[in-house]
Amino acid sequence: VLDMMAALRRHIDHVVEPGAVLGILASDYVRHAGLFERYFGSDFKLVYPGADEQSGLMEAMYGVNGIKDGYLDGVPLECVYQACLSLQE
After folding, report:
1. Quick one: how far is CA 33 from the chain centroid?
2. 54 and 44 within one domain
3. What is the pLDDT of residues 12-56, one digit of tens each?
4. Per-residue pLDDT averaged across 1-11, rounded?
5. Is the pTM of this model over 0.85?
6. Which pLDDT belongs to residue 89?
7. Are the C-beta atoms of 83 and 56 separated by less than 8 Å?
8. Do residues 42 and 8 both lie within one domain?
9. 1 and 44 share a domain?
10. Same structural domain for residues 2 and 43?
């Protein structure tokens, strides 16, 4: 059994200095479950997209004509891009 969060933590520990800012793109479920806080919150500053960008990200992933349905460009890609930009603010 693979613990993806533990594997990600090991990788991040090798490439990022403690105290750095990590931009997080995750589903609403993962975000509200606090998984990133549990694994990274004590050593890193976590930044999530704003509410509008998070909503757009979920629509891009799971909505009609979204990424999960195989639509990898156009509106879904723009929503992901906007979510990424919001991490830089």
Report:
1. 13
2. no
3. 999 999 999 999 999 999 999 999 999 999 999 999 999 999 999
4. 96
5. yes
6. 77
7. yes
8. yes
9. yes
10. yes
Instruction: List the structure tokens of 44.
Output: 């890193």
Query: How many folded domains does the chain comprise?
Result: 2
Q: How far apart are CA 25 and CA 46, in angstroms?
A: 10
Contact 24, 46 (CB under 8 A): yes
- The 10 Å CB-count burial string (b at 16+, else e) for 24-49 is bbeeeeebeeebbeebbeeebeeebb
What is the domain range of residue 84? Answer: 50-89
Same domain, 1 and 43: yes
Q: What is the C-alpha radius of gyration for the chain, rounded to an integer number of angstroms?
A: 14
> Is the four-CA dihedral 68, 73, 79, 85 of positive or negative sign?
positive
